[in-house]
Specification:
The protein contains no helices and nine strands. It has about 80 residues and is mainly β. About 0% of the residues lie in helices and about 65% in strands. A nine-stranded antiparallel β-sheet has the order 2-1-9-8-7-6-5-4-3, with no helix packed on it.
């Protein structure tokens, strides 16, 4: 899938569903990372090291949890614009 985020940033994300759980593969921190799904109150939350990719429906954001709970996401207002 392709997401368009604030600042007209386009972000390619591949989702993989396996018997072991759901995964997301996307660029963060200057490299492509494999994110693993974890429990979330709503939507689907994926974690890779200090990065969080949180999606709900066709919207998502990318955050760095080392920046603190009140920090702005690295990429916000991401909306799905294409399917692969």
């Amino acid at each position: 899938m392709i997401y368009r985020c604030a600042g007209d940033v386009r972000l390619p994300v591949r989702y993989l569903n396996t018997d072991a759980g759901a995964l997301a593969y996307l660029p963060a921190g200057g490299k492509r990372l494999l994110f693993v799904s974890v429990m979330a109150a709503s939507g689907v939350k994926y974690v890779a090291g200090n990065y969080i990719w949180w999606s709900k429906g066709k919207e998502a954001f990318l955050a760095d949890k080392t920046q603190g709970d009140d920090a702005e996401p690295l990429l916000k207002d991401c909306k799905q614009i294409e399917n692969w």
